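Page 42, continued from yesterday. The earlier attempt failed because a stray header line got pasted into the input along with the sequence. Redoing it now with the clean sequence only.
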Amino acid sequence: MSEIDPKLLRDIIMDHYQYPRNHELTNEEGYLSKHMASDSCIDDITVQVKLDQDTIQDVRFDGEACTISTASTSIMSELVKGKTTQEAKEIIQNYFSMIDQKEYDEDLLEEAVAFQNVGKQANRINCATIGWKALRDMIKESEGQS
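This time it went through. Structure tokens are written below.
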């Protein structure tokens, strides 16, 4: 893992918190939807994904969420859009490895590396992963897994 300026990481997180991308749900047909709520935080969000065969066409989310949850879900929504579900699963796996303080491919994660130190703060792990878990679950469901 390369050393990235902590101020830059904070700036990325704050930008995605103040101006979250894809932060609006849709009633359009063809979206899978997953509601996620935290027992330990205010996080209560719904994530939507639109798949076209094995490609992620769109990802959206909304709800009440803390800074970390909002920013990480915003980054995730941008990162996986246009990717195949296989590519998205690899990105998700690398993200969880990073959170778990294990080896990961930082080039694959792009701005999501802003959360590289969250694993050191146990109380923030769920915040940083709640949207990612929703997407992971919806991809598994779309592939007939549970």
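Notes: Residues 6-142 form a domain with the Sufe protein. Chain: A fold (CATH 3.90.1010.10).
Reminder to self: strip header lines before submitting.
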